[in-house]
């Protein structure tokens, strides 16, 4: 959905390259944040799993 949004916006603003660059930077930033959030989520799952297993030791 995000990719189709990018194509839609780039089609509308094709004459304005600067706007496209700003939007591209924003999408890269969002993608980076999503990757960071995913890493934190995975680490949290590992922590919770270890915490849960320690209850039974």
Describe the structure.
Residues 1-19 form the signal peptide. Keywords: Signal. This is 7917_t:CDS:1. The mean pLDDT is 68. Helices cover 86% and strands 0% of the residues. The protein is an all-alpha fold and 57 residues long. It is built from 2 helices and no strands. The chain is rod-shaped. The protein has one domain. The chain has helices spanning 2-12, 17-54.
List the uncertain runs.
none
**Outline:** rod-shaped
- Average per-residue pLDDT, rounded, comes to 68
What proportion of the residues form beta strands (DSSP E)? under 5%
- DSSP helical segment count: 2
Strand-pairing-aware structural class: mainly alpha
Characterize the biggest β-sheet. none
The amount of helix comes to over 70%
- Rounded to an integer in angstroms, the radius of gyration calculated over CA atoms is 19 Å
Number of strands: 0
* Total of domains: 1
Straight-line N-to-C gap: 46 Å
The H-and-E topology, N to C, reads as HH
Protein name: 7917_t:CDS:1
Keywords: Signal
Signal peptide: 1-19
Which terms summarize this structure?
mainly alpha, 0% strand, 57 residues
